[in-house]
Automatic annotation (TrEMBL):
Name of the protein in question: Putative Zn-dependent protease, contains TPR repeats
Classification via Gene3D superfamilies: Metalloproteases ('zincins'), catalytic domain (3.30.2010.10), Tetratricopeptide repeat domain (1.25.40.10)
One Pfam family recorded for the sequence: Peptidase_M48
Transmembrane segment boundaries: none
Keyword vocabulary terms for this entry: Hydrolase, Metal-binding, Metalloprotease, Protease, Signal, Zinc
UniProt cross-references to SMART domains, sorted A to Z: TPR (SM00028)
The Peptidase M48 domain, residue ranges: 38-225
SUPFAM superfamilies: TPR-like
UniProt GO MF annotations: metal ion binding; metalloendopeptidase activity
Cellular component GO terms, alphabetical: membrane
One GO BP: proteolysis involved in protein catabolic process
Keyword Metal-binding: yes
Amino acid sequence: MRTLVRSACLLTVLLAVQLATALPARAVTLLRDPDIEHALGELARPVLTAAGLPANNIQVLVIRDDTLNAFVLDQRHIFIHSGLLLRMTSADMLQSVIAHEAAHIANGHISRRIQNAQVANTISGLGMALAVAAVSSGADARAAGGLSLGLASSANRVFMSHTRAEESAADSSGLRYMISAGADPHAFTEVLDIFRGQELLAEGRQDPYARTHPMSRDRLRAIDALVAANTRAPRPDPSVAYWFARAQGKLSAFLRAPSWTLRRAASSATPDIALMRQAIAYHRQPDSKKALAAIDKLVAARPNDPFVHDLRGQILLENRKAQAAVAAYGKAASLAPRNAQILGGQGRALLAAGNPKAALTVLEKSRARDFSDARVLRDLATAYATTGQPGMASVLTAERYALSGRFDDALIHAKRAEGLLPRGSASWLRAQDVISAAEAQARKRK
């Protein structure tokens, strides 16, 4: 059983190595935040359900990129650029993007492309995207940290570019999903209006969405006809509108200048979103007194919201109030005991508060739910090293480097772990997985 679990944990990494070539990857940043991802999940759920897809098994993730794009690389993740998310003016518009990408999954476009890529061996640097990569702790990604995704030019061409036939099929299916979910199909045309005429521009001036989702006048006319033919009235869902406003409001508060956020916070969709945006903006100024005052008001308004307590824990921890952060993250974890990112924050706070043994327990729970969060792997390595377990620290460091595509560094730490851990143990076998992956990658570079 342990071997099966171990193999499942690194399955996507090994698949990534099989697909990758020696061409250099272009690193991009994936923003991770439990609140934003929950909100996007709530937006996606009715559309994914209408598509017959398992909503609980598909994540909508945000890439930090001001350009407009959305795409799928496998059957479990939909990626949306922050620029596109912030450009949307309604929940229906964002749902139309999700519906279109879900249609590529439901229609089997991704499965066929994976098979073709395995035969042709033309995918470059896909590994970290398929594995959902590894989180770094850059200060410019305080929405919850950044991930390095390997997306090389050949991957863009082969894996992200859809044919016109696929686009037409995804349009038709996506519109059907939207209508079934009660969303307004006119939002579909509102999104595409943003890209009308882009095919006339030079490729370097086009938004990535127009390059990976080919436009044509016939395609746009077909979409308009499908929308016009619909006779079913939309069924607006206030909760969907709320989660859209919350995701967009929180994301913009982390990415825009604090002064920009503070000027607009009062016009937020609800008072609690306004308080959230103010707390983040004050925290980033930094003005800890005002940030804590705003987040405390938000906690009073939403005492049973785990993501509010998570944000409070983040603000406290980044203001060096480790013990108070432990309490805040503990409350968040009690409300959302299976959320890997919240558990990771709780473990990080325990580590900062000087309690590595307790941190180990919580961080291992987080890793069991999301093995690809390199912040957790980094913190676990620190906790194991602090408690006198260098072999475990080395294998976790090796896994973190492997997930971020740094296979040479991963190999160094995996071999160190191999010499420190009991031969045949579960952790020793994990080190062997990293060694195999790193050596396979090295062979491909020759």
